Amino acid sequence: MHKLTLYGAPQCCLCGEAKEVLDRVRNSVDFELDLVDISGDPELLERYGTEIPVLCIDGVKAFRYRIHEKKLLQLLSK
């Protein structure tokens, strides 16, 4: 099973859209999901602050700004 990590922040509207995509994809493919709020962590803000939302699959950055549903399904089916 794949482990997905979504880095984002509460006021980020793109992060909300990313969560919606993940919810739809989860109906087809099972995966672990860790939601990480970067707003309280200076190191994560430095690393991801200008790119959120950032989605990592099994520790590898796969998407930033927007998650493309079809591409995500392809990646998770491997």
Q: What is the quaternary state of this protein? A: single chain
Shape: globular
Major β-sheet strand ordering: 2-1-3-4
Rounded mean pLDDT score? 95
Total number of helical segments?
Answer: 3
Run of helices and strands: EHEHEEH
Terminal Cα separation, in Å?
10 Å
Low-confidence parts, pLDDT < 50 over ≥5 residues?
none
**The CATH topology is what?**
Glutaredoxin
Class computed from helices, strands and strand pairing: alpha+beta
Number of domains: 1
Q: For the record, what CATH class applies? A: Alpha Beta
- What share of residues is helical? 25-40%
Radius of gyration: 12 Å
Strand fraction band?
A: 25-35%
* CATH homology superfamily: Glutaredoxin
Q: Assign the CATH architecture.
A: 3-Layer(aba) Sandwich
Could you give the count of β-strands? 4
Attribute tags:
78 residues; alpha+beta; four-stranded mixed sheet; 3 helices; 29% strand; globular
Structure commentary:
With about 80 residues, the protein is of the alpha+beta class. It has a single domain, classed as 3-Layer(aba) Sandwich (Glutaredoxin), CATH 3.40.30.10. It is about 35% helix and about 30% strand. The protein is built from 3 helices and 4 strands, in the order βαβαββα. The protein has helices at about 15-25, 40-50, 70-75, and strands at about 1-10, 30-35, 55, 60-65. Strands 2-1-3-4 form a 4-stranded mixed β-sheet, with helices on one face. Helix 1 links the parallel strand 1 and strand 2 (about 30-35). The longest helix is centred in the N-terminal third of the chain and has 14 residues, at about 15-25.
